[in-house]
């Protein structure tokens, strides 16, 4: 009998264990009817109205976590439940998830049919972000966030309106249909919900255009205008303004025109794409039309210097050289004239410094009686000077007598003439003007 009792007790224990296991398995397989986010507080409600004499007990699975008989605490803390008996759970984590069962006793009798509550603990959703992936004419939108649990759900809004057809993490669409639409995705679960920032596909989104600049290039009678800017994508469009008005015919990066027709016109180019638009500064062609006889047009600038500045500078240099040459010629001519005048004055001064002898002004009688000697003195060889030598003074008669008689000759003695020229006497009559130099005379032999 004893052995039979022990066997029956063992069978009962195994049956009870299987029953509890089945209960726990059944509880875990049930859907959660209460949810809590990690690190948050949650309250499980008690649907029964307690009396002061009632005994309240809360079980987490099969473990008693709170027990109060009337107002006497047996297990737990008074703050673990509210005044109406609801269970307070703080700083939730995964270990606190599971089945919570409330029980109420009145005088040892279990009263009420209180249902167990299944509490699930999960992470709150993270901030989502929308991305796009391009594939030729298609674009794929994806809502990126860190969680991948099946409890996370997605919702898409299109231009501010929820699209009920879009409930997946990602979806595809035709690029041309979604080019200008703005999308947002909302990620949520039972404990939290977050929405992404507005997003527009970037498959056709271009960078802002850079500041354009107009340049010109000259070729004889033609000029080419070019709108310079850094981007070369096909989305960039060009527009030309001519004297402040849009020219609908000019829609390319560059165009050509006749120089004489566009010489005084002001041009501006406008560069635009789908995200930005910029206009250049006003520009006037810098080709200076100077057609020579051969039809050649030289550029307006040479090494960055305007051609007219170079021409003006060259003309000024040439004019300065001409003035310098004229001044030099005039100065040289004046010097020559002054030199001739100085020579004449020197001759006259030299003549005035040799006084005329009195016997020239008052010739003595013996000079009159010897005209052949005077004639002989006037006839001089062609090789001698006819200057002041004609006015040298003759020696006094006493001195002539003391000298030896001279042999008549057609040519005077050089030494005597030099001595006479070197002799200077004070001027006898300063009022008389000396004779001017006479031209040479040829002597007939």
From TrEMBL:
<dbReference type="InterPro" id="IPR015631">
    <property type="entry name" value="CD2/SLAM_rcpt"/>
</dbReference>
<keyword id="KW-1133">Transmembrane helix</keyword>
<dbReference type="InterPro" id="IPR007110">
    <property type="entry name" value="Ig-like_dom"/>
</dbReference>
<dbReference type="InterPro" id="IPR013783">
    <property type="entry name" value="Ig-like_fold"/>
</dbReference>
<feature type="signal peptide">
    <location>
        <begin position="1"/>
        <end position="29"/>
    </location>
</feature>
<keyword id="KW-0472">Membrane</keyword>
<feature type="transmembrane region" description="Helical">
    <location>
        <begin position="307"/>
        <end position="331"/>
    </location>
</feature>
<feature type="domain" description="Ig-like">
    <location>
        <begin position="208"/>
        <end position="279"/>
    </location>
</feature>
<keyword id="KW-0812">Transmembrane</keyword>
<feature type="compositionally biased region" description="Polar residues">
    <location>
        <begin position="397"/>
        <end position="409"/>
    </location>
</feature>
<feature type="domain" description="Ig-like">
    <location>
        <begin position="116"/>
        <end position="195"/>
    </location>
</feature>
<dbReference type="InterPro" id="IPR036179">
    <property type="entry name" value="Ig-like_dom_sf"/>
</dbReference>
<dbReference type="GO" id="GO:0016020">
    <property type="term" value="C:membrane"/>
</dbReference>
<keyword id="KW-0732">Signal</keyword>
<feature type="region of interest" description="Disordered">
    <location>
        <begin position="351"/>
        <end position="445"/>
    </location>
</feature>
<feature type="compositionally biased region" description="Basic residues">
    <location>
        <begin position="369"/>
        <end position="379"/>
    </location>
</feature>
<keyword id="KW-0325">Glycoprotein</keyword>
<protein>
    <submittedName>
        <fullName>T-cell surface antigen CD2-like</fullName>
    </submittedName>
</protein>
């Amino acid at each position: 009998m004893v052995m039979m009792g022990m066997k029956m007790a063992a069978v009962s224990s195994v049956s009870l264990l299987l029953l509890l296991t089945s209960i726990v398995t059944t509880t875990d397989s049930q859907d959660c009817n209460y949810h809590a986010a990690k690190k948050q507080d949650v309250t499980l409600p008690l649907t029964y109205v307690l009396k002061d004499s009632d005994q309240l007990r809360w079980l987490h699975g099969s473990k008693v976590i709170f027990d109060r008989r009337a107002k006497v605490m047996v297990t737990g803390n008074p703050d673990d439940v509210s005044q109406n008996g609801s269970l307070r759970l703080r700083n939730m984590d995964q270990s606190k998830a599971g089945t919570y069962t409330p029980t109420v006793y009145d005088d040892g009798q279990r009263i009420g049919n209180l249902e167990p509550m299944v509490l699930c603990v999960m992470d709150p959703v993270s901030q989502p972000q929308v991305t796009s992936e391009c594939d030729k004419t298609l674009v794929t939108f994806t809502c990126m966030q860190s969680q991948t649990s099946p409890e996370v759900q997605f919702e898409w809004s299109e231009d501010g309106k929820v699209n009920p057809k879009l409930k997946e993490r990602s979806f595809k669409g035709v690029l041309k249909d979604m080019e200008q639409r703005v999308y947002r995705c909302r990620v949520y679960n039972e404990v939290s919900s977050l929405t992404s920032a507005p997003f527009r596909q970037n498959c056709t989104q271009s960078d802002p255009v850079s500041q354009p600049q107009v340049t010109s290039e000259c070729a004889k009678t033609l000029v080419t205008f070019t709108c310079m800017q850094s981007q070369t994508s096909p989305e960039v469009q060009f527009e030309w303004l001519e004297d402040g008005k849009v020219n609908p015919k000019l829609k390319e990066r560059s165009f050509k025109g006749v120089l004489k027709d566009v010489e005084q016109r002001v041009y501006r180019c406008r560069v635009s794409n789908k995200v930005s638009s910029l206009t250049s500064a006003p520009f006037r062609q810098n080709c200076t039309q100077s057609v020579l006889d051969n039809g050649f047009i030289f550029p307006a600038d040479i090494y960055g210097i305007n051609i007219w500045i170079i021409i003006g500078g060259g003309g000024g240099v040439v004019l300065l050289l001409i003035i310098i040459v004229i001044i030099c010629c005039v100065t040289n001519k004046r010097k020559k004239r002054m030199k001739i005048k100085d020579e004449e004055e020197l001759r006259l001064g030299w003549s005035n410094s040799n006084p005329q002898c009195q016997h020239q002004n008052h010739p003595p009688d013996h000079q009159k009686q010897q005209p052949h000697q005077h004639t002989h003195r006037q006839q001089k060889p062609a090789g001698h000077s006819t200057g002041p030598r004609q006015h040298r003074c003759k020696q006094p008669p006493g001195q002539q007598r003391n000298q030896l008689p001279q042999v008549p000759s057609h040519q005077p003695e050089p030494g005597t003439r030099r001595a006479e020229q070197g002799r200077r006497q004070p001027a006898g009559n300063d009022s008389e003007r000396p004779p001017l130099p006479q031209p040479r005379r040829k002597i007939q032999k």
